[in-house]
Amino acid sequence: MAAIGSAVGLGNVWRFPYVCYENGGGAFLIPYLVALFTAGIPLMILEFSIGHWFRGAPPDAFKKVSKKWEWAGWFSSILPFTVALYYIVIMSWCFSYMVYAVDLRWGADAGLFFKNFLGDTGNPAIFGNISIPVLIGLIALWITVFIILYKGVKRIGKVVALTVPIPTILLIILTIRGITLPGAMEGLSYYLTPNFSSLFDANVWLAAYAQIFFSIGVAQGIMITYASFLKKKSDINNNAFIISLADAGTSFLAGFTVFSVVGYLAASKGITIAALGEQIAGPNLTFVTYPTAISLLPFAAAFFGIIFFVALLNFGIDSAFSMIEPISESVNQKWKLTKTKAVGMICLLGFLLSLMFTSGNGLHLLDIFDHFIANFGLVIIGLVECILFGWFFSIRKIREHANETSDIKIGRWWDVLIKYIIPIVLGIILILSIIENVTKPYMNYSWEILIAFGLIPIVILFIFSIILAKKKGNEEVS
Amino acid sequence: MLPTSAIIMLIFGSIVIYGGLAYFIYRAFKK
Fold it and tell me: Does A165 touch chain B (CB under 8 A)?
């Protein structure tokens, strides 16, 4: 349940529907499902097996394969922590908007309201002022994360028993409301009508693999950490299938929620859905387009506004604390700190670092940070995992370990996927990202800004991972 | 009304994703 909560997050709502619409509509489901079964589920099985077998957070698990690779374990534990720094800021926006939804405070121009709310300077180099509502939400959320994590896995289990089903139920309510609105079918038609010629476009297939890879929460050390808590007889393969399909199911459902309301908005304004363009994805969808559509609802607009942001907060919170768990567990295991001390230190550090995203340039910094971490950090970890366990360890033994406790047995095809297919696909994604970023600055930001807030943080993380790996832990000292 | 091709993709996606999910949850409980 905790792993489902981790996999299902804000990206399912604000990324999948748009990627689907951009890459062939309903036809995108074919490469998406192929990617799910040939990359997402196999990687999930790999991470579950690693955590279950080595019974440790990533640094510990990687070290047991070879001391030389401990840095990679630290890298994969620190990376989700850095994602949490801005992820919790976005949740803080949701927190404020949940309150604003009571009186639909964004008014007629939700775009302008969003900019004012953030105190947006429009330039990543100009810091501006800290947004007080964002700061208040940030404090509340970091305290919440601390309270959930410091007691360990038992409390996590209790929390996810609520935070996994509640947002799904709310999403279903929002979908039912959405598809009964005028213009909804037009929106769904944009979402689902297949353009089969897109299946011959290599970029569509790469988009499908990238969507799966970024959505299900692999290559972040999270699944390895969670699997280390599993009982010895837990069914690894079946769990991997359930979590991956639950993630895909939420994304597919969110497409209906988003496109039905977007269709209604377009019909109300007398414009086409295509004219909304990128307003259908990311923060624009959540904080501008969707609130605008909510304001136009004929009745109970505030109610639907509140449940939309409550759903997002619930989707986000279990992903957020799962991003902190690998690093806190890694620190805990290496230096034998108490859980309270390890989680407290990490949450305090996280809060202080995430303050930089609360300033007037926070939206832009967050965008750059996310772009580099997703395109380079996660892909590098995925590659390292496949290479390390596929080529420097016996992949057959890992498969046998997974099969030992599993009802559904995986065959040699899985070895081929981990050793060859997935590294090749990730390698292509990485090379294309490098070419794209070198030839054209991301979003036309200046090179100085991109290097300062995109590249340098990744290099620092890499160096920091090596330092942590070299440091002696308490168990080694004794 | 949705175009026929969109309805076909809706049914296809639902069967694979939700059918698959139901099947694996059933296997988990059966065990």
Answer: no
CA–CA distance, A364 with A443 (Å, rounded to integer): 10
Q: What is the pLDDT of residues A241-251, one digit of tens each?
A: 999 999 999 99
Q: Which residues of A touch B3 (CB under 8 A)?
A: 189, 193
- Stated as kind and residue range, the H or E segment containing A329 is helix A301-335
Stretch among A36-50, A142-156, A206-220, A413-427 having the lowest mean pLDDT: A206-220
* A237: CATH: 1.20.1740
CB-based contact B10 A26, cutoff 8 Å: yes
The ipTM of this complex is 0.96
CB A71 within 8 A of CB A469: yes
Contact (Cβ atoms closer than 8 angstroms) between residue A128 and residue A359:
yes
pTM of the predicted model, to two decimals?
Answer: 0.92
Chain B interface includes A194 (CB < 8 A): yes
Q: Does A186 touch chain B (CB under 8 A)?
A: no
**Crossing angle between the packed helical segments A153-163 and A165-179, to the nearest 10 degrees:** 20
- In this complex, the residue of A194, A245, A248 whose CB is nearest that of residue B9 is A194
Distance CA A247, CA B28 (A): 17
Tell me which chain B residues have a C-beta less than 8 angstroms from the C-beta of A29. 9, 12-13, 16
Distance in angstroms between the alpha carbons of the first and the last residue of chain B: 42
Range of the domain at A340: 2-477
Q: Does A248 touch chain B (CB under 8 A)?
A: yes
Is the CB of A238 less than 8 angstroms away from the CB of B24? yes
Residue closest to A400 by CA, chosen among A391, A410, A392: A410
Q: DSSP character for A129?
A: P
What amino acid is encoded at A84 in this protein? A
Tokens of A125: 């180099």
Cα dist from A195 to A255, B6, B8, whole Å = 17, 10, 13
Residue A408 near chain B (CB below 8 Å) = yes
pLDDT surpassing 80 at residue A375: no
Quote the CA–CA distance of A358 and A117 in Å, as a whole number. 11
CA distance A335 to A323: 20
Q: Which of A419, A48, A73, A425 is nearest to A244 (CA)?
A: A48
Residue A338 burial class via C-beta count within 10 angstroms: exposed 0-12, middle 13-18, buried 19 and up: exposed
Inter-chain touch B24–A33, beta carbons under 8 Å: no
Domain count, chain A: 1
pLDDT in the model for residue A478: 39
Instruction: For residue A242, give how far its alpha carbon lies from the nearest alpha carbon of chain B (Å).
Output: 6
